[in-house]
Amino acid sequence: MGSTAARRWWARASLGLVVLTVLLLLAAAGPRSLWLLALVAAACAGVVAALFWFLRERAPLRWIALALAVCAPVAVGWALVTDGLLWVALVAAALLAAATAAAHEALRPDPSEWALPVAEAPAPRRPFLVMNPRSGGGKVIRFRLRERAEELGAEVALLDRPGTDVQQLAREAVARGADLLGVAGGDGTQALVAQVAAEHDVPFLVVSAGTRNHFALDLGLDRDDPTRCLDALRDGVEARIDLGEINGRVFVNNASFGAYAEIVENPAYRDDKRGTTLAALPDVLSRRRGARLVADVGEVTVRAPQALLVSNDPYEASDLAGLGRRSRLDRGLLGVVAVRVDSARQAVGLLNGAHSTGLRRLEVREVVVTADEPDIPVGVDGETLRMTVPVRCTSRPAALRVRLPRHRPGVRAPRGRLHWATLWALAAGRQVPLRGGTPAGEPAASAAGDA
Q: Which residue from 112, 137, 161, 355 lies 20 to 30 Å from 25 (Cα-Cα)?
């Protein structure tokens, strides 16, 4: 079945399941179906509002809000059981979940829109790798990465002493004739060495030996077995990807401002992440603590966001805040997610995703962040720094040559963005070109106005 025909049938299946859900509600619940829908919607809104109060308030209001968040779904379940509608609600929820999945499949962008182009590349003659034996709970030692890399002809430097300047190590290696730089470690170390690789235009190798390995994930590498990344030393391909830059420092994933950066800057966060976060959130969300930020995002001015995330290429837009994965790392754009939630009503509005007034998603080439304080904390690829304002973030398109193993898991295909008018047009058999999961001609994100 051709791609267009498959999309049409997925669209028809999605709309058919929605119709089936409505018929089920009318047949099984009758006039009570409206009551059922209102009850579930009210419970969802109540839970979100209660969670907002839990995060923003202190005891005893915090614990009252938590009790409400727990009791609301329990009360709804009890009411449905009492009225004999629990099975109707469960079946309807399953049908709607299937309809949503079919819709995402129908609107999924074509592989040409998200597959990273690669080219053949000769094997490096003098590769140099930096390895952090403490990263990822000791993956370097557990997987014998040093020994395996040396067997493939690589020179390896272990970061076994605190305070080692990894960029200086990389620059000295290039001066000795290294024709590939690589890192087995966390994303912060990846970014430091990637900056040197970009400066000298030598290929860069990512070995997924960190804790989370977000960069490796978005490159389609194997995060469970970092030894597979080393295959690129003998049988690899090459791609050109972007780098983000913040006040002259490179980042490969993102830079975060506001709540997250304020919290993790606290020395107590390392030993008690949950307690430190819960203790700090009331002051951060109510702006009793932290700088008041203003971000110039292209032509948009975002005022006083509680959280601002600037990413090296945009994250997918198919979830609540678009913080899942980046399907492309070569678009030459920064992704921006700004959150400003001042009330429970705005928190409930986040259920409306990208259409919420409390959530802004944009794609630009430059972001400038200012504040009412001379310097602010910024989380850069998981490391907290203090930076003097204004903080300028820019995209460096195609700045990095990245070396990838020929055989790798690959990037998961991005989900299509739900757009019911497009879905209806597909089901009706009309030609609807999709670009990155968005109907052609529709902007992926707003780029004008004041927030």
A: 355
pTM (two decimals) = 0.86
Check residues 417 and 130 and name the one with the higher pLDDT: 130
- Predicted local confidence at residue 368, as pLDDT: 98
Beta strands, E only, 126-235: 127-131, 155-158, 180-184, 204-207
The rounded distance, in Å, linking the Cα atoms of 303 and 311 is 19
Q: How many CB atoms lie within 10 A of CB 71?
A: 14
Mean pLDDT over 174-183 rounds to: 97
- For residue 171, the model assigns a pLDDT of 97
Q: What would you report as the CA-atom Rg of the chain, rounded to the nearest whole angstrom? A: 25
Return the structure tokens found at 151.
């067997």
The answer to whether the beta carbons of residues 156 and 166 sit under 8 Å apart is: no
CA 92 to each of CA 79, 110, 199: distance values in angstroms, whole numbers, following the listed order: 16, 30, 56
**pLDDT per residue as tens digits for the range 263-273:** 887 777 767 77
Q: So what's the pLDDT on residue 449?
A: 37
Q: Among 151-165, 262-276, 395-409, where is mean pLDDT lowest?
A: 262-276
Domains and CATH numbers, the chain: 3-106 (no CATH), 124-234 (3.40.50.10330), 254-397 (2.60.200.40)
Gap between the Cα atoms of 439 and 443, Å rounded:
9
Residue 49's alpha-carbon distances to 337, 339, 432, in angstroms, are: 21, 16, 38
Phi, then psi, of 282 in degrees rounded to 5: -55, -45
Residue type, 31: P
Between the CA of residue 382 and those of 75, 188, 251, 255, 379, what are the distances in Å?
Answer: 40, 7, 10, 8, 6
- Report the pLDDT value the prediction gives residue 447, as an integer from 0 to 100: 43
Reported in sequence order, the residue ranges of 252-382 that DSSP labels E, i.e. its strands, are 254-258, 293-297, 300-303, 307-312, 334-339, 359-364, 366-371, 375-380
Are 113 and 411 in contact by the 8 Å Cβ rule? The answer is no
Give yes or no for a contact between 65 and 54, defined as CB atoms under 8 angstroms apart. Answer: yes
**Rounded distance, CA 321 to CA 350, Å?**
9
